[in-house]
TrEMBL record:
Protein name: Isochorismatase
GO molecular function, one term: hydrolase activity
Gene3D superfamilies: Isochorismatase-like (3.40.50.850)
InterPro entries named in the record: Isochorismatase-like_dom, Isochorismatase-like_hydrls, Isochorismatase-like_sf
CDD domains on file: nicotinamidase_related (cd01014)
Organism expressing this protein natively: Gottfriedia solisilvae
Entry keyword set: Hydrolase
SUPFAM superfamilies the record matches: Isochorismatase-like hydrolases
Top-level taxonomic group: Bacteria
Organism placement in taxonomy: Bacteria, Bacillati, Bacillota, Bacilli, Bacillales
Record-stated family: Belongs to the isochorismatase family.
Residue ranges constituting the Isochorismatase-like domain according to the UniProt record: 34-173
Amino acid sequence: MCIVFRTSLIKMKDGGECNRGKYTPYYSKMNDHTALLVVDVQNAMFTYPDFKLHNEEKVLDNITSMVEKAREVNMPIVYIQHTEDDSEYKEGSSTWEIHQRIEPRSTDIVVQKRTCDSFYQTNLQEELKRLHIEKLVIVGMQTEFCIDTTVRSAFSKGYNNILVKDAHSTFDNGNLIASQIINHHNDILGGGRFAILKETKDISFE
């Protein structure tokens, strides 16, 4: 919890800082108690005939890069897989499957969810506790739905979050274009409110 008294900068017990109501957590070695959380990077996202993810190929490249970086240091990777009956996310369908470029391995964890919150009525919290995870590096889809909700939910449960600002995406929605949605959510979620923002190229797990 971040409480501001008369001073503008307060040192917290974990080494983080509280500055004007915004909490900046202290990050020790990146791969220490850290997991990569890959949210809803499923074939359906890439197969809608009338919609295309913003910056689709680059975002997928960045997500793939994050998975590869995590594998290089044996960092836990947790895949979130949206599951919904009578839709393109029906379990077992080709569109429900996680994209082949980042296909989970037998050592990875796959958590199925049915809402925008990756923690709600799933075993995600249980798996993270089992692995003694304290920090989450978050990538995936869609920015204003499952990314936004999962980042906020993780924060409320005490996790230190890094949101990879160029490794999540969404679609135009009729009111805003996708780039506006993404920029807005990076601004709202980042800055130490719910997550620290980093670009793919700036993240190293060494």
